[in-house]
């Protein structure tokens, strides 16, 4: 047969073209009819398989399993040796974030290395989501080539998967079984599969979204029930941070408290280790938490390091790099009391985009209400203890001390009637012991005014002043003005006690004073600690290491520290901060 002669229809694998049917013999016609009958039967089988696949896909609400099932079905229906589904990222860059494959062994996937992110021919389908059929991938201008250890691939069929008017991803099919090209019929059936897959994926995503909402609601209910009971051994703020981080699948969470920009402070952090001193050193004046507290609205950013509204928490605290973050207000009936922050590493940005800001915002509001109730309950318990101890103190004063005082007076009267010197001496000693006992009871009555030494600022200040008497050789005078126990909060107390200890230490070591006065006052204008002595003043050449620390502590809390000193009038340290 010459090059100009047509190939005979009876040759294996060759169908008679319609234009040649009139010239074909009977055997050729029968052969052509059989080929077309097999094609029709094959198409019917494949459409029946597609219907079965749609039913099975609709029954699976697990998104991961569904994606794997779609890829497997697409490969079977189109007769492709390899199949894949590339899921697009929700961000503006629209690159691949997930690549599900079928036909590649785990060993081959491992040898190939990193899966594609959406360049070359795959990127063309992302930018122009229309079906594409190719005889040879390598011949297309957009082909990027294959990485090392990638199996050879020639024929190609790509079809977008849409959810309503949005492209969820693309189906990629390669290497038609038998070595031919993908047909128009293959394209039609895969397009139909992609349409059904879009509906199934949307249902699966709605189901997962409902599951996430249920987890937030369950966390809120669990948190409320836990804090409504006993919280002994648990910091409520730590519970807030831990539970929110767990439900949101965030990498780090932290809670900021404060009602004004100046008073903001990071109280707890979950998912990362940071010292309390490092957390206190964070300047939150220009931060997302500051914006949330001022506006009362949630704020989200794609990258903490590059967003001008945020502070780079990871860099400030030496933590692994954090990317996207979400900050929601802690809102209670009395107003906004702080903020809850959630952050993810850049690799987990997809988790960030799956979180509906309304859910952590609702959780934070409920948490703030429960925290407020918990504080009220703790205040009531504290008041009950104080009332009970006040009753004990009154009983000791009105009954025990008065009875001991009467006994002492009786003994003193008796001693005047006794002429025996040794008996008189013993009676006087007994009276002295009774006086000492009365003083001890009075100190105990004063101590009963505190719920606990660690929780009462007046007890702590008194202890420091009493301890200073050992080095000064006299006890400094101590005065409390205003509702000190109420207005000196746990935010201010550590710094105030540190400043008092430093001021008393300076007076004992350097001032050579004969008189030291300590005044702690609290009121609407803030908290003020004044320590003054009549010593020799501060030399001009002294290095102000301790005084510098006092000023830094005041400035960090939004206050100031003033030191006045002269040889004639001694030294006065006045340390004042706002009420937090």
SSE layout and pairings?
Blueprint (H helix, E strand, L loop, with lengths): L25 H33 L4 H16 L1 E9 L7 E7 L3 H7 L7 H8 L4 E3 L21 E8 L2 E11 L7 H45 L7 H13 L3 E6 L7 E6 L5 H5 L7 H8 L3 E3 L11 H5 L7 E8 L2 E9 L5 H6 L3 H60 L3 H27 L9 H16 L4 E5 L2 H4 L5 H19 L4 E8 L2 E8 L11 H12 L3 E7 L3 E8 L3
Parallel strand pairs: 11-12
Antiparallel strand pairs: 1-2, 1-5, 3-4, 4-5, 6-7, 6-10, 8-9, 9-10, 12-13, 13-15, 14-15
InterPro entries: GAF, GAF-like_dom_sf, HATPase_C_sf, HATPase_dom, His_kinase_dom, Sensor_HK_TwoCompSys, Sig_transdc_His_kin_sub3_dim/P
Keywords: Kinase, Transferase, Two-component regulatory system
Protein name: Two-component system sensor histidine kinase
Task: Please give a structural write-up.
There is one protein chain. 30% of the residues are buried. The strands form 3 sheets. A 5-stranded antiparallel β-sheet has the order 2-1-5-4-3, with helices on both faces. A 5-stranded antiparallel β-sheet has the order 7-6-10-9-8, sandwiched between helices. It has 580 residues and is an alpha+beta fold. The chain has helices spanning 26-58, 63-78, 106-112, 120-127, 184-228, 236-248, 276-280, 288-295, 313-317, 349-354, 358-417, 421-447, 457-472, 484-487, 493-511, 545-556, and strands at 80-88, 96-102, 132-134, 156-163, 166-176, 252-257, 265-270, 299-301, 325-332, 335-343, 477-481, 516-523, 526-533, 560-566, 570-577. Mean pLDDT is 77; it is low at 1-22 and 29-41. Helix 2 (63-78) runs antiparallel to helix 5. The chain has 16 helices and 15 strands. Strand 6 (252-257) and strand 7 form a beta hairpin. It has 3 domains: 23-207, Beta-Lactamase (2-Layer Sandwich), CATH 3.30.450; 226-371, Beta-Lactamase, CATH 3.30.450.40; 455-580, Histidine kinase-like ATPase, C-terminal domain (Heat Shock Protein 90). GO terms for molecular function: kinase activity. Residues 496-580 form the Histidine kinase domain. This is Two-component system sensor histidine kinase.
